[in-house]
Amino acid sequence: MQIIVNISLKHGVLDPQGRAIGRSLTDLGFDEVSDVRVGKRILLEIDESDEARARQRVARMCETLLANTVIEDYEIEITEGESE
């Protein structure tokens, strides 16, 4: 089973990398961009057939290692196919 974990900074947490990218986009003429937030995407292959158990295990991975839950939120997405 393939799992996608999207990790992003919580609202209200300063994102200096996002601000730098936003300024650069404006400097390059992309004036329609008003805010940029940078995050992480983690792809996992899990040997588990039960979606509920897989989601529970990945949530524990996020709480333990993958995300800093003080300043980051995470979303878990289960996909059908295996990665190539």
N-end to C-end Cα span: 12 Å
Strand order of the largest sheet: 2-1-3
The CATH class turns out to be Alpha Beta
Q: Approximately how much beta-strand content do the residues carry? A: 25-35%
The H/E string reads EHEHE
* Count of DSSP H/I helices: 2
Question: In the CATH scheme, what's the topology name?
Answer: Mth169, Chain: A
Count of distinct strands? 3
Helix fraction by DSSP (H/I, runs of at least 4): 25-40%
- The parts where pLDDT drops under 50 for at least 5 residues are none
Count structural domains. 1
What is the CATH superfamily classification? Phosphoribosylformylglycinamidine synthase subunit PurS
For the largest beta-sheet, the strand count, sense and barrel status come to: 3 strands, antiparallel
CATH architecture: 2-Layer Sandwich
Structural class: alpha+beta
**Radius of gyration, in angstroms, nearest whole number:** 16 Å
Shape: elongated
Overall average residue pLDDT: 94
